[in-house]
Description:
With 163 residues, the protein is an all-alpha fold. Helix content is 93%, strand content 0%.
Amino acid sequence: MLNPGYPDFWVLISFLLFIGLLVYYGVPGLIGKALDKRADAIRTELDEARRLRDEAQELLADYQRKAREAEDEAKSIVEQARREAEMLAAETRKQLAEQVERRTKAAEDKIARAEAQAVSDVRAAAVDLAVAASERILKSKISGDAAASLTDSAIRDLKAKLN
Length: 163
């Protein structure tokens, strides 16, 4: 079947020689080492990719946790600000009511003092009129030094009693 005269024979011989040379120079080992090195490099890259993915997932979880914490903190700050605003509004209303009450009391006190002053002024005017009227009446009815002395003492007594 294989005859040295056929080209298939020489192709087979050359192929076997080529394979023999490849084996003699250790090409299959070199190819195996290159493939092993490439497989190791790919394995290392895959491990690195997994590590980076895990790290990214941890960072994402950390950022999500921080975002939730920041959101919770913002909510608590808003709630605290709302409570403080309510307390401030209540305190302001209380202070305003106290101030209105003080001013109302001050106005009432001022009115009461004005009334008392008016009553006092009216009494003083009435006393002065009564004294003047008494003096005229007494002068017209009593005459002389005794009348003047009696009139003066009566006027002093009257003023003291009316005040």
